[in-house]
Write a structure and sequence with these properties.
Metallophosphoesterase_sf, 13 strands, alpha/beta, UCP008292, binds fe (ii) ion, 239 residues, hydrolase
């Protein structure tokens, strides 16, 4: 199962036609394309239409999570509808499955959120705003865990925008780690299992890392992979 992935393409109205040429050979190289959020620059519906045109009708299934930029205009539901109209499945605490040559793939996704990493993280305590901030991460991590747990496929991928681990943030200033991801996402992935975890958001981070439970994590933010997409080849665990 060959998984193509990219995040943080940050498309604006001037991006129309810019990506399509680089995607021409994708159907020969991969079985699915996963988009790891921050698909738009400012979260407008018009930008989402550009994303839909560039990534729609590619010849392989496309699934996405949204990123913080895609929420900037409070139009995330309309953006998901525009993408959905072009057969781009937007995951948020949900999953999708696909069969390729007798092997099944399940992808569970959420935008995720921040909060930081074990020992240096926000907690659901104090002011209402702080409880809401930390509580949102608790909720989306639980939803990711439930979506993973519900998958009964040969291969499972966790797709988020925010990072589940700190390894793939190396290169970013430490001061902003709490705004780049949360260990709760990593705990959910370890608790319910996956063959690969993909995220974006950390433009200055590193591509490769591992959860505490040993699951491969890849930061596919476009400025990190420096390509139109990266491809990861996954094989079902030997029975
Ligand atoms: Fe981004
Ligand atoms: Fe982001």
């Amino acid at each position: 199962m060959r998984i193509a992935a990219v995040g943080d393409v940050h498309m604006g109205l001037d991006s129309r036609g810019q990506w399509r040429p680089a995607l021409r050979e994708l159907p020969e190289r991969a079985d699915i394309l996963l988009l790891a959020g921050d698909l738009t620059r400012h979260g407008t519906v018009d930008e989402a239409k550009v994303v839909a045109t560039e990534f729609g009708d590619l010849g392989v299934p496309v699934a996405a999570v949204l990123g913080n930029h895609d929420y900037h205009c409070d139009a995330e539901h309309d953006i998901a509808t525009v993408l959905g109209d072009h057969d781009i499945t937007v995951l948020e605490g949900t999953s999708m499955t696909l069969a390729v040559d007798g092997t099944t793939l399940g992808v569970a996704g959420t935008k995720g959120f921040g909060g930081g990493f074990a020992g240096k993280c926000a907690s659901v305590f104090g002011e209402r705003l702080m409880r809401e901030f930390a509580g949102h991460t608790v909720e989306v991590a639980a939803a990711l865990g439930s979506a993973l747990a519900a998958l009964d496929t040969d291969v499972r991928v966790a797709l988020t925008h925010y990072s589940p681990i700190s390894d793939t943030l190396h290169g970013e200033p430490r001061e902003i780690y709490p705004f780049l991801g949360s260990y709760l996402l990593g705990e959910a992935i370890d608790a319910h299992g996956a063959d690969l975890a993909l995220h974006g958001h950390a433009h200055a981070g590193a591509e490769r890392g591992t959860t505490p439970g040993g699951i491969r994590v890849r930061n596919v933010a476009q400025p990190v992979i420096r390509a139109a997409y990266a491809v990861y080849d996954l094989h079902p665990a030997a029975v």
